[in-house]
Amino acid sequence: MxxxxxxxxxxxxxxxxYFALLESDEVVNTTTKYKxxxxxxxxxxxxxxxxxxxxKNKQTLPQLFLHGLSTKHAExxxxxxxxxxxxxxxxxxxxxxxxxxxxxxxxxxADLDTVIKSNITEQLLxxxxxxxxxxxxxNFLLRQINHNSKKENPAIAFAINTIKEAHATSLxxxxxxxxxxxxxxxRLFKNNVxxxxxxxLRIQRFQNALDHVRKQNFQSLTxxxxxxxxxxxxxxxxxxxxxxxxxxRQFLQQANExxxxxxxxx
Length: 266
Fold this sequence. Notes:
Elements: E1 2-6, E2 16-24, E3 31-36, E4 43-47, E5 53-55, E6 59-60, E7 64-67, E8 74-79, E9 82-89, H1 93-98, E10 109-111, H2 112-115, H3 120-125, H4 130-147, H5 154-165, H6 172-178, H7 182-192, H8 197-214, H9 221-227, H10 233-244, H11 248-254, E11 255-256, E12 264-265
Antiparallel strand pairs: 1-2, 2-9, 3-8, 4-7, 4-9, 5-6, 5-8, 7-10, 11-12
Helix pairs in contact: 8-10, 9-10
């Protein structure tokens, strides 16, 4: 797989982490397996080849589909050549861009045409240039944001950034700063992110742990577990398997991770 990451325009960075091109010119019809690792973010995927990637039970995916936040690891397979363009959103983007409650797409995907009528698929198919495709998607997303009455919620943006940037281990401080109850914070996360704040916090802690594993930045798994506020090594490995599908050592042995959280599996 060849992987290229592209920064979004400044006007989209509150909603989009990055665009990415994933492609392979493999001419032999060999099947490749990829793991989807829980990362706490939704996305939008365009497949140039409609039969490019297969979901579980060899189920085909729409050519242009929106997916919500995942809470469990998964796998996809592909055979032969493919060329996909992905939009990797911020955690709260489904509500902020499309105006729909994020929990409706948690662990789900939907053909974009079922969410909003557009001719974006046709526009993307008529362009081969990566730069032009990024432009088409950027303009589409900006129009959506401008027409959406439910724009970015500053409270959820603050809560997400606090959990991600400060590596928060408690939600109490967030509730106090926002002057809201636990129930209100739950509702805020359900509608804007798609999961509870406690689950989102767990996912972010796992991602922090995964980053240490990627860099092999630890002396022992026990030490790493305590550093990241897991009860013990067993708790850490159990949660790692829940979100990645394998243990940390299996990940290091088998993952060829050119695209973050979407490794080719050896």
